Amino acid sequence: MDIGMIGLGRMGANMTQRLLDGGHRVVVSDLNAEAVAVSAKAGAVATSSLADLVARRPPRRAVWMMVPSGAPTQSTIDQLAPLLAKGDIIIDGGNSNYHDSMRRADEVRAPGIEYVDAGTSGGVWGLKEGFCLMVGASPEAFAHIEPALKTLAPPDGYAHVGPSGAGHFTKMVHNGIEYGMMAAYGEGFELLAGSKFDLDLRQIAGLWRRGSVVRSWLLDLAELAFERDARLESIEGYVQDSGEGRWTVQEALDQDVPLPIITLSLMRRFSSRQQSSFSAKVQAALRNEFGGHAVKPADAPKS
User: Fold this and answer.
1) How many of the other CB atoms lie within 10 Å of CB of 35?
2) Which residues are catalytic?
3) Sign of dihedral through CA atoms 235, 239, 241, 245?
4) CB atoms < 10 A from the CB of 44, how many?
5) What are phi and psi of 204, to 5 degrees?
6) What is the value of pTM for the model shown?
7) Measured between alpha carbons, how far is 49 from 65 in angstroms, rounded to an integer?
8) Packing angle of the helix pair 278-291, 166-193 (nearest 10 deg)
9) 114 within 8 A of 92, measured Cβ to Cβ
10) Does position 302 have pLDDT exceeding 60, yes or no?
11) pLDDT tens, 16-45?
């Protein structure tokens, strides 16, 4: 299919490449001209502005945004929506708050524009492994963009989970669970690292990957991290959060649903910014492995 891509950062660039490899025509836009040039060299159609991107697309246009949540996403929609026509589709693949996605869907519905929220997981590995896509949309909009979803996702790796807002709600909870899993791995490896046995953490991570009940992709990535740096000495135990864990805990408070593990894992991220721990080093390393998120060097000052 013919699709537009706005935002060519770590995720957007890889998604563009995967779409191109799948035979789709991709028209790209980014504030960074160099990023546009790189995608154009790979086969995408370069544009100089959002208006140019829309003009280069045939009706019914589908435009996928991979920009930071909050103000950058809202600003992009405010500029893009007036350029579109009835039946066109805006897809937000970023980590937006699902309340914002529901509101935005209502706002663009009046002129006849469809709004799709596509919770996207896969990080920097998505180009090779595929992206898991949790899609909130009308059945009609979902059907129209499904060819792109099939290309972006691994087999059975995408689903229409509900109406607008449901995709980002599902991704929010997904990331809350991720917080808890990462915290558990971090604590376990901290206990192993502090034992009297001088254990090889990379060896143990690799061992647990094979047949163990705690095996997972995060454990695969932990082995890679320990292979690079056996005791994570080059990483500061400072764990950032990008919002979804906070939103998950807030939703739990609003619904009176107890989430003690996810809530505590969020609090532990906060505490990592005040004192260093090996558990925090593991979590920081895992965020770098799956998402390419920056880590603070061990000698860097905290801010």
Assistant:
1) 18
2) 171, 178
3) positive
4) 25
5) -70, -40
6) 0.89
7) 14
8) 140
9) no
10) no
11) 999 999 999 999 999 999 999 999 999 999
